[in-house]
Specification:
Layout (H helix, E strand, L loop, with lengths): L1 H9 L4 E6 L9 H15 L7 E7 L12 E5 L23 H23 L4 E4 L5 E2 L3 H6 L8 E4 L2 E5 L4 E5 L10 E4 L25 H9 L4 E3 L4 E5 L7 H6 L3 H10 E3 L2 H7 L12
Parallel strand pairs: 1-2, 1-4, 2-3, 6-10, 7-11
Antiparallel strand pairs: 4-9, 5-11, 6-9, 7-8, 8-12
């Protein structure tokens, strides 16, 4: 009887992917970013297990030529937040972000949590925030679906790749969570949905805390995140990144040259298939 019960649990774990979209006025190239988004959504929807939902949270609905029954478009109804609206900017935020970046991260964080709210309403058991240009392994939903109990807090993705658009190579990273936000899967029941009329940055940056997310969950909830050891995310480097990742990996330094030599992986058809790493222009897998 117990074995049957556990099997029933195993096949009913729903993973919700939340994808926040920046406001169109802040986009450097809306058409290009829609191509990136479409590839990301195709990547997510290629999951080998169908127990997942995708929540695309937007101000202006993006224009992508892809549809899937597991996609939910979620209109974000709250106004833009300026630096003067961030209640904890002087006490907390300015230690880590400049004003422009803080505004962008605030918008992103609020959209992630609004997506979490919707995911919880759709009875998702676990939630993962995914940047609108990143790619994920098609094994993730199946991995989450194998959970045999409901008390696990979630997972941190440890291994991943950094990929510069147009390259045939990727750089392996064993601490991808330190530079990428699409790296935590958190149990929905411990995600506290804040009052969206308040603009407290701390309330919205659980998924965006990168390296601190694991420690924060331990500190505030007394729970541990497990690790996903297989490479599960590709951090895409392109012309419109908010961060300075392109400058970091492209700099001609001895450290970067050695990193590329020691950690470089030739991109195979299998890897492209698992992550949906296709050319933006052709929408077909490269050979």
């Amino acid at each position: 009887m117990n074995i049957i019960f556990l099997r029933e649990i195993q096949i009913n774990k729903m993973l919700g992917f939340v994808v926040p979209i920046k406001p169109k006025p802040l986009s450097k190239d809306w058409g290009y970013e829609n191509l990136l988004l479409e590839r990301t959504i195709r990547s997510i929807c290629s999951q080998q297990n169908d127990k997942f939902k995708v929540f695309i949270v937007h101000n202006e609905k993006p224009q992508i030529n892809f549809s899937h029954p597991n996609i939910e478009y979620v209109h974000y109804p709250y106004p833009a937040v300026t630096i003067n609206d961030i209640e904890d900017f002087h006490s907390y935020v300015k230690q880590y972000y400049n004003e422009i970046y803080a505004e962008r991260m605030m918008d992103k964080g609020k959209k992630i949590f609004y997506g979490c709210k919707k995911a919880i309403e759709f009875h998702c058991d676990f939630i993962m925030a995914v940047d609108s240009d990143d790619l994920v392994s098609n094994l993730l939903a199946g991995f989450v679906n194998q959970v045999s109990h409901s008390e696990i807090a979630g997972w941190r993705i440890k291994n991943g790749y950094i990929y510069e658009e147009g390259s045939r190579l990727a750089i392996k990273s064993k601490q991808i969570f330190g530079i990428n936000g699409s790296t935590h899967i958190i149990r929905a029941s411990i995600i506290e949905i804040p009052d969206f009329n308040r603009n407290i940055f701390w309330n919205y940056n659980l998924f965006e805390a990168h390296g601190y997310t694991l420690a924060r969950i331990k500190e505030y909830y007394g729970l541990d995140l497990d690790y996903i050891d297989f490479p599960a995310v590709i951090y895409i480097v392109h012309k419109n990144n908010y961060s300075n990742i392109k400058k970091i990996i492209s700099g001609i330094t001895l450290k970067n040259i050695l990193k590329k030599i020691l950690r470089t992986k030739i991109i195979t058809y299998k890897m492209r298939s698992e992550f949906g790493l296709i050319k933006l222009s052709s929408k077909k897998y490269e050979a």
